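Practice problem: predict the structure.
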Amino acid sequence: MKTILYARVSTKDQTAAHQLTQAKAAGFKVDDVVTDEGVSGVTTKLAERPQGRRLFDMLRAGDTLLVRWVDRLGRDYRDVSDNIREFMRRGVVVKTVINGMVFDGATTDPMQQAVRDALIGFMAALAEAQANAMAEARDAGIAHAKAMDREGMKYRGRKPAFTRAQFVEVQKLLGYGESPSVIAKMTGVSRPTVYRIKGDPSGCAKAIQKWEPVGH
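Answer:
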């Protein structure tokens, strides 16, 4: 029985090594890592990703599929929930690094099954909502940068000490109730930066927009 980490890397700010480090820091022993690079999680289904397809072939009953968060497992609510249920049907246990969620098809108690299935639906819907929010923020950043370029506004203030990916990640972990110390360790930003994002998320978002190149 193996524990396989599936890492989807869609931007230059993400790395499979970083996701593996997070998994080990959370106490997981990983036997193998499967990585899809340069693949959009918003537009591409798991089964249509080169390495995503491998998961369905290589995972066996008793294995554990480990992902940073359920949004790695599909492009939207239906894709995520269908894939989790398919892996469970095959006897594969799905676990997440963030919050330590466990989805196990071996559960036989009706009440536990109901809670598990409801949780799958909720987490899948949350993953889709987060993906849509990130896409909207990216589009807003592009529009803002273009407007600044048209108006000849060159001054952008001090460059933020964090990337958009780190900003989104910090906000997500804050929403999960993680402590600033843990968040700093998981995202690679400083504790003061975590507190700044927590205290002024709107201002931090605007700072990122000012430094993003047009068409980012």
